[in-house]
């Protein structure tokens, strides 16, 4: 919290207390410059175009051990989940009945799997996996969905090439008012 | 006053809204009880005990009457496998007006409420900008601010109404993921302009400082419009459950994109396709294609009293009241029906209506002890009219359960019990 004394000194930054609001707005440039290199340990955003991935790699075979240690309590031994929200495997968007939507059947981008696991999983200890472990465990989830071979070395380059089954299943509504 | 004085304007007992003005209908209970009270000669009023001794001292931080402690948010059972997930719902059936007290504003968290020291919190703006910047909380408090009254609604609100059978629920349990507040903060455009947006930037990617580092992508043109970095809610610093020390606020849009505990805004050419804009908060249609980035909340209203799980104890005049809102404008009209949508009457709306804010509506209604189905139907300043549940479900299906904004039906039976029904 600012004190009244600090508030007054902030106002004095503007050319004059008698100036209008626009002059005050121009005087407020209080952000501190920072370099992207200073944000490497802070910025976790990993996008479909391959930007934002850390170094590292892993295979589904390696990921099985990580998964069984860190993920099965919620996601089950084979990704079958413990409820509809934690199921990772199976489903078919074209099924006759209501489709079961999982990483395999629904998610349009493999990048989302990396981005989400890195920032939010496991739920009881987010950000506790190493980058290698993230590559390993998402390789295992993709393999459980028969999207990649269990021997594929997943890294920044190979992850970008993974095509998800429902990649064309979405309509961008972002410009609708 | 006699029943003959009242102008009935729609079937099943709806009374002209003008009778709310000056006639004292609201709160008068029932015609029958008035005559009963007049007949009760045994009631002698005396000076109560609290009028005979000094009360409590003024306090540093206020609290409500102990007699209102039953007014609580409703939250689900904690899930040990998903710590911090879940929601708490506003007690719509007990609230009045169009501002929700901060302690009763709904919450939805994806990894719990972080305990953030504002002196340690940073907001970073970077990516496709001329100069990446980091702001402290104290820096931000020195910027010119604006105050606006807006609703906030989770896009999962009312989602159970997509289901095939009506749930036994209350206004709170079915619709409590909406609230209204005055938000004060800095136009986001001010801060983006300071960093200098590159011409090829098309999206902002907003990330919170919670354990999930929850993120959402928002088109730059929208971010430069009416989006706010909110620091205050109803005059006090935003509470931890709402994002202390700061949150994004995107008026009129699904609550999830108003990222709480905001710590990072990265400008990019493309959206990140975060988990909460792909796996969740997307709307699968009947043709199995899924709408992504469905931001605005549709035109909607809910009768909050009488409402589900209440009981009308006796026949007489009731004030039917509720809230209406639209993500695309202000509320121009709310109609109420007491016969399941066959006939409608205009409700009174409080006059100070603003864009993307809750509007309180009221209309008197004479319940004569018969079956009734109460509904409300809102129209906004863009001419959008709230659809029936049937038309909404027919159009959207029920694979996804986000963005329900159809008409709610509360059935009143001859015993006075009020229940959620599909009508």
Model description:
The complex is a heterodimer of chains A (177) and B (423). Chain A is mainly α. Chain A is built from seven helices and two strands; from the N terminus they run H-H-E-H-H-H-H-H-E. The longest helix of chain A is centred in the C-terminal third of the chain and has 14 residues, at 131-144. Chain B is mainly β and 423 residues long. Among the domains of chain B are: 122-169 and 177-291, Alpha-Beta Complex (Sulfite Oxidase, Chain A, domain 2), CATH 3.90.420.10; 300-421, Sandwich (Immunoglobulin-like), CATH 2.60.40. In chain B, 9% of the residues lie in helices and 30% in strands. Chain B has six helices and 26 strands. In chain B, strands 7-6-15-10-11 form a five-stranded mixed sheet. In chain B, strands 8, 9, 12, 13 and 14 form a five-stranded antiparallel sheet that branches. In chain B, strand 12 and strand 13 form a beta hairpin. The two termini of chain B are 34 Å apart. Chains A and B meet through helix 1, helix 2, strand 1, helix 5 and strand 2 of A and strand 6, strand 7, helix 2, helix 4 and strand 15 of B. Strand 1 of chain A pairs antiparallel with strand 7 (133-136) of chain B, so a sheet runs across the interface.
Specify the number of helices of chain B.
Answer: 6
Q: What is the helix/strand order of chain A?
A: HHEHHHHHE
Helix and strand content put the structural class of chain A at mainly alpha
Main sheet characteristics of chain A: none
CATH topology of the domain at 60-160 in chain A: Cytochrome Bc1 Complex, Chain D, domain 2
Total number of beta strands of chain A: 2
* Helical proportion of chain B, percent range: under 10%
The end-to-end span of chain B amounts to 34 Å
Gyration radius over CA of chain A: 23 Å
Please state how the strands of the largest beta sheet of chain B are arranged side by side.
7-6-15-10-11
- Give the CATH H-level superfamily of the domain at 60-160 in chain A: Cytochrome c-like domain
Average of the residue pLDDT scores of chain A: 89
Q: Output the structural class of chain B.
A: mainly beta
**What low-confidence regions of chain B span 5 or more consecutive residues with pLDDT below 50?**
26-38
CATH topology of the domain at 122-169 and 177-291 in chain B: Sulfite Oxidase, Chain A, domain 2
Distance between the termini of chain A: 37 Å
**Top CATH class of the domain at 60-160 in chain A:** Mainly Alpha
């Amino acid at each position: 919290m600012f004190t009244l004394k600090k508030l007054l000194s902030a106002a004095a930054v503007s050319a004059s207390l008698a100036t209008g609001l626009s002059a005050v707005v121009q005087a407020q440039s209080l952000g501190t410059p920072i370099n992207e290199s200073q944000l490497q340990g802070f910025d976790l955003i990993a996008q479909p175009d391959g930007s934002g991935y850390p170094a590292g790699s892993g295979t589904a075979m390696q990921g099985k051990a990580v998964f069984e240690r860190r993920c099965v309590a919620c996601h089950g031994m084979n990704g079958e989940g413990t409820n509809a929200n934690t199921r990772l495997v199976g489903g078919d968007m074209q099924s006759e009945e209501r489709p079961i939507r999982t990483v395999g059947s629904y998610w349009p981008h493999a990048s989302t799997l990396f981005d989400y696991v890195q920032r939010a999983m496991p739920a009881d200890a987010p950000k506790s996996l190493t980058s290698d472990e993230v590559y390993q465990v998402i390789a295992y989830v993709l393999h459980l969905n028969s999207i990649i071979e269990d021997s594929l070395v997943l890294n920044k380059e190979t992850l970008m090439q993974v095509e998800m089954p429902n990649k064309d299943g979405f309509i961008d509504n972002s410009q609708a008012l | 006053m006699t029943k003959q004085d009242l102008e009935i304007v729609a079937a099943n007992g709806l009374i002209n809204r003008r009778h709310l003005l000056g006639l004292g209908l609201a709160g008068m209970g029932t015609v029958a009880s008035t005559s009963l009270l007049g007949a009760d000669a045994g009631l002698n009023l005396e000076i109560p005990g609290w009028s005979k001794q000094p009360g409590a001292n003024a306090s540093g931080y206020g609290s409500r009457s102990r007699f209102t402690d039953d007014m609580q948010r409703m939250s689900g059972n904690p899930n040990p496998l998903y710590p911090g997930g879940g929601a708490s719902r506003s007690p719509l059936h007990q609230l009045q007006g169009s501002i929700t007290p901060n302690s009763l504003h709904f919450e939805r968290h994806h990894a719990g409420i972080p305990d953030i020291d504002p002196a340690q919190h940073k907001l970073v703006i970077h990516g496709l900008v001329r100069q990446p910047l980091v702001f402290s909380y104290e820096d931000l408090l020195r910027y010119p601010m604006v105050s606006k009254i807006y609703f906030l609604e989770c896009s999962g609100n009312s989602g159970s109404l997509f289901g095939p059978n009506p749930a036994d629920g209350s206004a709170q349990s079915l619709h409590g993921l909406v609230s209204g507040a005055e938000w004060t903060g800095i136009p986001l455009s001010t801060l983006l302009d300071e960093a200098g947006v590159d011409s090829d930037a098309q999206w902002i990617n907003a990330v919170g400082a919670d354990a999930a580092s929850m993120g959402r992508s928002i088109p730059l043109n929208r971010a430069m419009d009416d989006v706010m970095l909110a620091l205050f809610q109803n005059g006090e610093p935003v509470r931890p459950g709402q994002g202390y020390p700061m949150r994004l606020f995107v008026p009129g849009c699904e609550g999830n994109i108003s990222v709480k505990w905001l710590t990072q805004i990265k400008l990019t050419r493309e959206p990140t396709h975060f988990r909460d804009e792909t796996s969740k908060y997307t709307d699968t249609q009947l043709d199995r294609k899924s709408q992504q980035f469905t931001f605005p909340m549709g035109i909607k209203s809910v009768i909050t009293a009488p409402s589900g799980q209440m009981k009308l104890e006796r026949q007489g005049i009731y004030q039917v009241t509720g809230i209406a809102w639209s993500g695309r404008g202000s509320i121009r009209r709310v109609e109420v029906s007491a016969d399941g949508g066959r006939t409608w009457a205009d409700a009174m709306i409080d006059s100070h209506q603003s864009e993307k804010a809750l509007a309180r509506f009221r209309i008197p209604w004479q319940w004569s002890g018969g079956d009734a189905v109460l509904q409300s139907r809102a129209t906004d300043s863009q001419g959008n009219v709230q659809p029936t549940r049937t038309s909404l479900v027919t159009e959207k299906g029920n694979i996804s359960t986000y963005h329900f904004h159809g008409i709610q039906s509360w059935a009143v039976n001859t015993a006075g019990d009020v229940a959620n029904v599909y009508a």
